[in-house]
Design goal:
β3 and β4 (60-64) form a beta hairpin. A five-stranded antiparallel sheet has the order 4-3-2-1-5, with no helix packed on it. It folds into two domains: 16-74, Roll (SH3 type barrels); 78-143, no CATH class. The chain is 29% helix and 22% strand. α4 runs antiparallel to α5. It has 148 residues and is an alpha+beta fold.
Length: 148
């Protein structure tokens, strides 16, 4: 998945990725292997952001975002960061995306509703989180002029 310049990228330095199959003969040997994102490379207007990736077993290749699948975001120093990546917003999602990566692309009320739905049952009171999500959804409906 490519990102626009104004969006926060899903891929970050230190992220663990899986390499998708590429039609190029020189890359076929890497399909399905894992790697670690090292640094940003150039940006192609059509293909998006390119990244330098260290491949398990040795070697470094350059891949575009649609040529990789995010497995997990690794935290600095190998430690969980409760400020920038609390576990109730980062664990259990198939593509490794943090909830903030999704909600920042949405209008406020919709993003807040998603945030509370995503963490329901993982932090504090599950019922309370679901009620908060419902409150933001109702607020968004009112903002749009819908009758309740």
């Amino acid at each position: 998945m490519s990102t626009r310049d104004s969006e926060m990228p899903l891929f970050r330095i230190g992220a663990l990725v899986s390499i998708r199959h590429k039609p190029y003969a020189s890359y076929r040997q890497h399909a399905g292997k894992r790697g670690t994102v090292r640094e940003k490379q150039g940006r192609d207007p059509d293909a998006g952001q390119a990244w330098s990736v260290s491949i398990e077993g040795g070697g470094v290749i350059t891949l575009f975002e649609d040529e990789m699948e995010l497995i997990e975001v690794n935290f600095p120093n190998g430690r969980h960061d409760p400020v920038s990546g609390p576990s109730y917003y980062t664990s259990g999602y198939s593509n490794g995306a943090q909830v903030i990566d999704i909600v920042e692309r949405l209008p406020f009320n919709r993003g807040a509703a998603i945030k509370y739905l995503a963490r329901a049952g993982r932090k504090d009171d599950e019922i309370q989180d679901l009620r908060k999500a419902h409150w933001y959804i109702e607020r968004e409906l009112v903002r749009m002029g819908a009758s309740l």
